[in-house]
TrEMBL record:
This is Arsenate reductase. It comes from the Bacteria. Signal peptide: none annotated. InterPro entries: Arsenate_reductase-like, Thioredoxin-like_sf, Tscrpt_reg_Spx/MgsR. It holds the Pfam family ArsC. NCBIfam families: arsC_related. It comes from Cytophaga hutchinsonii (strain ATCC 33406 / DSM 1761 / CIP 103989 / NBRC 15051 / NCIMB 9469 / D465). Belongs to the ArsC family.
Length: 117
């Protein structure tokens, strides 16, 4: 199995469920905490080779709702979306799982049972 990296925020309820699930299955992973401020343009660009902007950005979250209409409209442009994510990493749906070149967004135990089998 390729190295697994979880991207997200440590105190997020969904992240806590994901950590618990992985730990209970004894699956090794690395955690990349957005609050540490070390998200790079290379990280986001790599995600967008496998995922769409719509899959990555959480439009139901408070961070999205606080954006101006101009910022919201700009996400249709990949470079503008990357810049916005780097300024506001909490826009990213959580958890974002990176396994080699494959990416999955969100925590779904049934999907993860298949993904990590």
């Amino acid at each position: 199995m390729p190295n697994i990296t979880l991207f997200g925020i440590k105190n997020c309820d969904t992240m806590q469920k994901a950590f618990h699930w992985l730990d209970s299955k004894h699956i090794a992973y690395t955690f990349h905490d957005f609050k540490k401020g070390n998200l790079t343009q290379e990280d986001v660009s790599f995600w967008l080779k496998d995922l769409t902007i719509e899959e990555v950005i959480n439009k139901k979250g408070t961070t999205w709702k606080k954006l101006s209409e101009d910022e919201k409209n700009a996400v249709s442009n990949e470079n503008a979306a990357i810049e916005l994510i780097l300024k506001n990493p909490s826009l990213v749906k959580r958890p974002l799982v990176q396994m080699g070149k494959k990416h999955v967004v969100g925590f779904n135990p049934e999907q993860w049972d298949i993904l990590f089998s």
